[in-house]
Design a protein that fits this description.
The structure is a single chain. The chain is an alpha/beta fold and about 140 residues long. It is built from five helices and eight strands, in the order βαβαβββββαβαα. β7, α3 and β8 form a beta-alpha-beta unit. α3 packs antiparallel against α4 and α4 crosses α5. The chain is globular. The relative contact order is 0.15. The N terminus is likely disordered.
């Protein structure tokens, strides 16, 4: 599987979603205005298959080609194994050079509440400490 080479397939963008509706319709329309074809793909239907082509991935609607890019609109819930497989597909696409918007790392960081808390603490704590120390110094100096 390679990134698409023909004019028709080269302009295809995967919209990863577990349900279609207003948002996916608007995304497809916006992509079409810019000369791209947005194809809705359920990550549950994607799979790893090392016999399916050089990339080892099967993305429904793309044949043996990879999308030009991917936009993650939604990921269905499921078991740990189901969710890690879906995120694994996104990781693999990124590794193959396909730009993924709202990629697996961003999703992992935002849905894992402990990681989100850790990352926020890491960014906010030093600022908060600096602010407190200035306040304490000012209070002590007066």
């Amino acid at each position: 599987m390679t990134r698409a080479t023909g004019d028709e397939t080269r302009r295809r963008v995967a919209i990863f979603t577990d349900e279609t509706g207003w948002h996916t319709r608007k995304l497809r329309e916006a992509l079409a205005r810019r000369g791209f074809e947005g194809r809705c793909v359920d990550l549950e239907q994607c799979r790893f298959d090392t016999g399916a082509g050089p990339a080892g991935l099967v993305i429904p609607g793309f044949g043996r080609n990879l999308p030009l890019a991917g936009i993650v609109r939604g990921i269905a819930g499921g078991s740990l194994e189901q969710i890690t497989k879906r995120l694994g597909v996104l990781h693999a696409l990124r590794e193959l050079g396909v730009p993924i918007y709202n990629d697996a790392r961003a999703i992992e960081r935002s849905v894992d509440k402990s990681m989100t808390s850790f990352l926020l603490h890491k960014v906010v704590s030093p600022r908060r400490r600096r602010g407190r120390s200035r306040t304490r110094r000012r209070r002590g100096a007066c």
